[in-house]
Amino acid sequence: MMLRNALPKVVTALPGPKAKEILDRRAKAIPNAIKSIYPCVIEKGQGAMFQDVDGNIFLDWIGGVGVLNIGYSHPECIAAVKEQSEKFFHSMFNITTHEGYVKLAEKMNEIVPVKGDDKKTMFVCSGSEANENAVKIARSYTGRPNVIVFSGAFHGRTQLTMSMTAKKAYAVGMGPFPDGVYRAEFPNLYHAPGHLEGEEAIKYYIGKLEQAFVEATPKQSCAAIIFEPVQGEGGFIPAPIEWVKAVRKICDENGILMICDEVQCGWSRSGKLFASEYFAEVNAAPDILTTAKSMAAGMPISAVTARAEIMDQVTPGTIGGTFGANAVAAASALKVIEVMAKENYPEKAKKIAEKCNKRFSEWKEKYEVVGDVRGMGAMIGIEFVVDKVSKEPNAELVNRIVQEAVKLGLLLESAGTYNNVIRFLCPLCVTDEQLEAGLQIFERVIKNCLN
């Protein structure tokens, strides 16, 4: 059986002997700050599965933290990369125009749901760079210095995006941080104060945003409000549509740009090609959208898209970078867009979400430690708590679940401010049999960890 259709199978203790030898070399050669808790050394991957150097086969529910929506080593992406690599690897776009950059920008301008009919796109290499460039674009266009971000946010690890990121475990000892970044409270409805629900909860969180304009930055000094349609590191918390509509209204009335960070939630994960399509359907599309991760099936590339009016007001020389839309990465990204349309990847995400949400919701009823199940499409978070009344974070249990699941061939990853959420980011090409195997392993591990 091809690895693409295989099921999880662990045949050695973990790590196996070959993996241990490489992991020992890693410890000597690589900074300790770049860590991994998984006893795996990949040899090859196909679809949602990978095989390690000792012959163990794993089902990957992490997908490179959202990079592998289209799966490991998609054959059409391999062919596109090979074809381009035989022509040339790289041509810096500031020096020599290459058509791949132009074609990809044209395609992004067609498919990215930002306000305006006439759009433009630029490329860099990572989500952090995309978000940093988006802020620079907003500042250049508005002539204003400040941005508002949110609790639970993760926007990257550059100096600016570390200041934008809420979880300071990602920024220990890295200050001082750039000025002009102010934080409001993100609408986490599971933890809304006073058991607020619905319209009252939305009103509370919009009030917290309005408070930031009083205590942090005046509206006339605010260039942008940036948020993730579904928070990633923050615990897979979706932005409520009514809250987004209210944010859009505030931005429109005050000359502020709304930026959606779709680095992790983009590329069919949400049940749409981009999560912001849901916002566009209610006339609340962002002004600027950033994306990366699954954009090129694992090749490093990221994008910033906005209407031409915004893009064309940027001061020359302040945005861009040497490797932006590298020719090989651009070829892979163009193929990803083609394949996702041809194979209807958003629909794949919806079908996966239907199966997973049904099972996860059953667990919520069955287990006192499963506090909340939430997300958008096949980007799902399961929040584990000590008990449903206190909602106290249960990071210890999550850590045990992650450690035990890998021993059975399932890779899971935690998220959340308190590391008590398990995130579902399985490649969208997963087979029904593989998905069912993963669900069975996951529940088996929950039961084992509770006994």
Q: If you had to describe this structure to a student in words, what would you say it looks like?
A:
This protein is of the alpha/beta class and 451 residues long. The chain contains 14 helices and 15 strands. The protein has helices at 17-29, 63-66, 75-85, 99-111, 127-142, 159-164, 198-215, 241-254, 276-280, 308-311, 327-342, 345-366, 395-407, 432-450; strands at 42-46, 49-52, 57-60, 119-124, 146-150, 181-184, 222-227, 257-262, 288-291, 302-307, 370-376, 379-384, 410-411, 413-415, 421-424. It has a 7-stranded mixed sheet with strand order 4-10-9-8-7-5-6, sandwiched between helices. A 4-stranded mixed sheet has the order 1-2-3-13. Helix 3 (75-85) runs antiparallel to helix 11 (327-342), helix 4 (99-111) runs parallel beside helix 11 and helix 7 packs parallel to helix 8 (241-254). It is globular. The two termini are 36 Å apart. 51% of the residues are buried.
Quick rundown:
The protein is of the alpha/beta class and 451 residues long.
Terminal CA distance: 36 Å
Oligomer: single chain
Report the C-alpha radius of gyration, rounded.
Answer: 22 Å
The low-confidence runs, each spanning 5 or more residues with pLDDT under 50, are: none
What's the average pLDDT? Answer: 96
Look at the helices and sheets and give the structural class. alpha/beta
Overall geometry comes to globular
Helix-residue proportion: 25-40%
Number of strands: 15
Order of strands across the widest beta sheet?
4-10-9-8-7-5-6
- Count of helical stretches: 14
* Biggest pleated sheet: 7 strands, mixed
Order of helices and strands: HEEEHHHEHEHEHEHEHEEHHHEEHEEEH
Assess the beta-strand content as a share of residues.
15-25%
